[in-house]
Specification:
173 residues; two-stranded antiparallel sheet; 52% helix; mainly alpha; 6 helices
């Protein structure tokens, strides 16, 4: 979710804000905007967060039934961080006489990634960019005059009247 570990991600902020609003469906969009989501993607993104949260809650219930808690998971990850390769041949340490096994680098890598994900240490894989822009249009008096003339010509065309297409003389003084 978050990448720097200091500030919670927008997903976490949304869940916190929405839980503070007692998971009121009417407050969902307000909580999403306060969490930093643009209105354009808020509905789709919050729907994804809520569905993954529901799945996560189901998984937590099943893990609790099976007796798996965070301590058990932490011990398992620590054991995997020291995983030995099942295919590697052990070597005898000449000093201690103990057998040393080569590491299972892939399992250790996956255990490290899992531990980092649990600590929310990875940067986000996708960055939502708000692409809305504000533009200002300034009309000069000449443009307004042309628009008014265009409106009068359009009305004349609708009535099937003749239209004067001669340009108006510039009144320069």
């Amino acid at each position: 979710m978050a990448g720097n570990g200091k500030e919670p991600s927008r997903d976490v902020k949304f869940i916190q804000l929405w839980s503070d609003a007692n998971f009121d469906p009417a407050a969902k969009s307000i909580c999403a905007s306060r969490a930093g989501f643009s209105p354009k993607v808020a509905g789709r993104t919050t729907g994804r967060i809520v569905s993954s949260l529901i799945q996560n809650q189901k998984m937590q219930k099943e893990l609790k039934k099976a007796g798996v808690d965070m301590k058990v998971l932490a011990k398992k990850i620590v054991a995997l961080l020291d995983a030995r390769s099942p295919l590697g041949k052990p070597t005898k340490d000449p000093v201690t006489g103990e057998l040393t096994y080569p590491p299972d680098n892939f399992v250790q890598l996956k255990a490290t990634e899992l531990g980092l994900k649990l600590h929310d240490a990875f940067a986000p894989t996708r960055i939502d960019v708000d692409k809305t822009e504000t533009k200002q249009i300034i009309f000069s008096a000449e443009v307004l005059h042309r628009l008014e003339r265009f409106d009068s010509q359009r009305e004349a065309m609708a009535k099937a009247e003749a239209i004067d297409v001669t340009p108006e003389p510039n009144n320069q003084e």
